[in-house]
Each structure stands twice: as C-alpha cells, then as structure tokens.
Design a protein that fits this description.
- By secondary structure, this protein is α/β, with parallel strands linked by helices.
- The chain folds into 2 domains: about 5-215, PAC-like subunit (Rossmann fold, 3-Layer(aba) Sandwich); about 235-275, no CATH class.
- It is built from 10 helices and 9 strands.
- It has helices at about 20-35, 45, 100-110, 140-150, 160-170, 185-190, 195-210, 215-235, 235-255, 260-275, and strands at about 5-10, 35-40, 55-60, 65-70, 70-75, 85-90, 115-125, 135-140, 175-185.
- The longest helix is centred in the C-terminal third of the chain and has 18 residues, at about 235-255.
- It is globular.
- The chain starts with 6 loop residues before the first strand and ends in a 10-residue tail after the last helix.
C-alpha cells in the first residue's frame, strides 16, 4: 500500500490558504526546531506582485537595515535520521504564473528525491474556539487514502496554490496529501491561532511518522483560548453565538448522533443565526 515514504516535503504559504497564520506558522515552527539548509528559492520577479506583497525593510541586531523580497523557499533537513525526514517549503502564495511556479517546485522536489508531499492549509469556519480544532486530512490519491485513512474531497470551486502543487506532484508520481485546519472565523483575521497550528502539527506527525517538536506551542494555544474567553465575556452577543457553535459541534461529535440528528441540529443552528452573524472580536 502506498505511503508518503521517508522523505516528505511539507508546504504552506502565506495568503489565501492561511487563516490565522496557522499553516505558515506550522512550517516556521518546524524550521526553527531543527537544522535546515536552503536548497531552492524561486525568482521573486517572476511570481510576485509587489503592490500586493511588498518587499520589506528589516533591522538586524546591529541596527542595520536590509531589504527582504517576497520568497518561496525549500529547506532540506541536515544531519541523518533513521525515521522520516521533513523537507520544508514556505513563503508567499504567488500572484501569477502558477503553472510555472509549480513546475519549478516539483523539479526541486524531484532533485531532492522527495517521496511524498503534505500541504498545510487553514480556513475560516463556523467553529468554536473552545473545542478541539478540526483538521481535514485528504488526498486525491486513492492508494494513499486507503493506506492512511484519508478523506476524498468533493469540493468544487476556486483553489489556492496548494491544490495546484498537489495536482502537479501527483502528475510526476509524488503522492500528495493535504491537511486543513478549521479556524474560528470570529478570531481568524485578528491574531495568529496557535491552537490550529498545534492541531496541524499533531496530525502531521500521525500522517508521516516523523517526530514533530511542539516546544511551547501547547501553552501558547491555552493562552490563546483564554484570551478569547476573556474578550467574549464582555460581549453578550458573541458569548451566545459561541454557545450555539459549541452546541452544533457537540452534536457532530456525539457518538450516538445519527445523520438525521446532525442535519436537524444544523438546521436549527442556521435558523437561529438568521441572515447575519456576529462579527469578529474587536470589530
């Protein structure tokens, strides 16, 4: 049965695929936790719109300024390991020439003998911050779905660069899976979501068998949840809305819930919500 192998490329990008910065933060955590060397970067002139993603001036420790351009970079783990090793790909979602961008990334992956790819994303969803973060693990690769018990998505509509890369990887024989975390929509646009990042890393470890360090992420996730609790406590409308989300989520998770019961619960929830819904905290 097909698996991802022992040389797995983990990818995430800032932008459309990255609600609450959860996915890009996961790749950044992996990079910070281990030793890596840069093996490939795209030419930013070819793929980025600088009016949308502007270069930035940054200060170093000595107070010197330097210009940093948008990038998409692949990193190789250094040192040897008996288990699964994780290559990392991160940066900014390209603004143009996606097919050429994907071709460059896949060529770099092939040159590194990558055996599998996991693409990390996060999306704003009608979910409560007080419950475990749901992570949808899926693949269009039938053998991978069977061996790793993944979902087959039936989604149709606009996609981000992750879907393009997954398709390009499968075309050349690199099996690809995706992990998508559901981030509460009422906080996703205001602060990073370490709880969603932690959920992605937990699922990544399950999927690949690689040892994934968490560091202080569990305590950051707990502090994030507590801060939202405190903010919501001062907003009766938001508190009630979160209760409704909790009730709906608990109905989904209940082992005795039937499909009809779940459908009925969500119909009631949608009727209560009506045509509008509370805005995000801080609006």
């Amino acid at each position: 049965m097909e698996t991802l192998g022992r040389r797995v490329l983990v990818a995430a990008f800032d932008g459309w695929n990255d609600a609450g910065e959860a996915a890009s933060a996961a790749v950044e955590r992996l990079r910070d936790a281990g030793d890596h060397e840069r093996v490939f970067s795209v030419d930013p002139e070819l793929y980025f719109d600088y009016q949308y993603t502007r270069p930035q001036l940054k200060l170093d420790a000595d107070g010197r300024r330097s210009l940093h351009w948008p990038e998409a970079t692949m990193w190789r783990p250094t040192g040897s390991s008996r288990g699964t090793r994780l290559w990392l790909l991160g940066g900014v979602e390209p603004a143009r020439s996606w097919q050429a961008f994907a071709a460059e990334i896949i060529d770099a992956a092939l040159s590194e003998d990558v055996t599998g790819m996991v693409l990390l994303g996060s999306m704003m969803s009608d979910v409560p911050h007080t419950r475990p973060i749901s992570v949808l693990a899926g693949s269009d690769n039938e053998a991978l779905r069977v061996s790793l018990e993944l979902e087959r998505s039936t989604y149709e509509g606009p996609v981000g660069i992750l879907s393009v890369l997954a398709d390009a990887a499968e075309e050349v024989g690199i099996p690809a899976a995706s992990l998508w975390a559901s981030v509460p929509h009422y906080v996703a646009g205001h602060t990073p979501s370490p709880k969603a990042t932690l959920a992605l890393l937990d699922r990544l470890e399950d999927l690949t068998g690689a040892e994934v360090p968490r560091g202080d992420l569990p305590s950051e996730a707990a502090a994030w949840e507590a801060s939202i609790d405190a903010a919501a406590a001062d907003d009766d409308e938001m508190t009630e809305y979160i209760r409704q989300l909790e009730h709906a989520r608990d109905a989904w998770d209940s082992p005795e819930a039937s499909g009809d019961a779940i459908a009925q619960e969500f119909e009631k929830y949608l009727r209560r919500r009506g045509d509008g819904r509370p805005g995000r905290l801080g609006d």
